[in-house]
Amino acid sequence: MARLSVIPCRDANIRVGILGGSFNPAHTGHCHISLEAIKRLHLSYVVWLVSPQNPLKALNIKASLDQRVTFAKSVACSRKIIVSDIERHFPDCYTANSIARIMEMHPKTEFMWIMGADNMLQIHKWYRWWRIFELLPVVVFDRGEHIQNLRNSKAGAMYSASSIISGSNAYSNDDAGAAKHTDWYFLKIKKEYSSSSQLRSVLQCETK
Q1: In the prediction, which pLDDT does 58 show?
Q2: Looking at residue 144, what is its pLDDT?
Q3: What's CA 40's distance to the chain center, in Å?
Q4: Going by C-beta distance under 8 Å and a sequence separation of 6 or more, which residues neighbour residue 192?
Q5: For position 205, what pLDDT does the model report?
Q6: 66-72-75 Cα angle (round to 5)
Q7: Residues 66, 58: contact at Cβ < 8 Å?
Q8: Under 8 Å between Cβ of 6 and 82
Q9: Where are the domains of the chain?
Q10: Tens digits of residue pLDDT in 130-142
Q11: Which CATH architecture has domain 15-206?
Q12: Which one of 11, 29, 30, 163 has the fewest CB atoms closer than 10 angstroms to its CB?
């Protein structure tokens, strides 16, 4: 474990976003969210944490982890986007546990968890989901759901939203200093209509 890392420098005193998922496959929507996060959250990197298997989904991922990682690297549109398969080395791939392990590897790095609004609405189904909010700030990107729906969700009701980050209201160093680990932020972005399911349909048609 001591030799594993997700960013180039283990002892870097920087801010890094983690965007987790199966990336089955990676698409321009992931790039869109990542670039917005880098710009507006002042991140040094965004790590695409490619999971071997989503514990909430059936074993229906046809592409292997290696295939998904290779494709994600071809899609990544910035040197500040790091594609990582580090979860293959963990005894499990539960998000809360993976975050804790990564933070232990990089104790000087400030991490933020990045996810779409759809995940915020069902995160209470995740294993020890509350631990995620207690470990690090959570940034939720607008993917169509109204902010009130998020506030009324189980997670939103338990942990209050610190702020709504619009184009003219970026997350600052002052915010970082004042943030509690139980904070979450709602970041408004322009809609990006690419999705893994849509892209899989296109790729399947092209291979027939």
Answers
A1: 56
A2: 60
A3: 15
A4: 28, 29, 32, 33
A5: 37
A6: 150
A7: no
A8: yes
A9: 15-206
A10: 999 999 999 999 7
A11: 3-Layer(aba) Sandwich (3.40)
A12: 11
Q: Among all chains, which residue has been given the structure tokens 């990564």?
A: 102
Residue with tokens 């990006």: 192
Identify any residues that bridge with 138 across adjacent strands, giving them in sequence order: 113, 184
HEC readout, the chain: CCCCCCCCCCCCCCEEEEEEECCCCCCHHHHHHHHHHHHHCCCCEEEEEECCCCCCCCCCCCCCHHHHHHHHHHHCCCCCEEEECHHHHCCCCCHHHHHHHHHHHCCCCEEEEEEEHHHHHHHHHCCCHHHHHHHCCEEEECCCCCHHHHHCCHHHHHCCEEEEECCCCCCCHHHHHHCCCCCEEEECCCCCCCCHHHHHHHHHHHCC
Q: Which residue has the higher pLDDT, 62 or 45?
A: 45
pLDDT (average), residues 92-105:
97
